Amino acid sequence: MPRYVIERDIPGIGLSDREALGKAAEKSNGVISAMKMEQKNIQWEHSYVAGDKTFCIYIADNESLLQEHSQRSGFPITKIIEVRRIIDPVTAER
Questions:
Q1: What's the Cα-to-Cα distance from 43 to each of 14, 19, 64, 87, rounded to whole Å?
Q2: Strands across the sheet with 42-50, in order?
């Protein structure tokens, strides 16, 4: 399945405490669980919170599933970028 980076503009997210972030994660998990029960292939790997943005890493069959998750969860999407390759320190070892 393709991997995606989702950029979300969420004012104040960087100031959110652990409890607020936990509630957001719980909401996202609930929507993903419901979608999987509907045989929709989507998985949230993790998110980075930076300033007024989040950068979320998802695996999904297609972008429309990411849009559906956004609509159902209420978490806006600013931009979706498909990951073409992953590089890391091991990539230098040829």
A1: 23, 22, 13, 21
A2: 42-50, 53-60, 3-9, 79-82
Burial (Cβ within 10 Å: 0-12, 13-18, ≥19) of residue 69: buried
Summarised one tens digit per residue, pLDDT across range 2-46 is: 999 999 999 999 999 999 999 999 999 999 999 999 999 999 999
Average pLDDT, whole number, for the chain? 96
- Total structural domains in the chain? 1
CATH of the domain at 48: 3.30.70.3090
Task: State which residues form the domain around 29.
Answer: 3-92
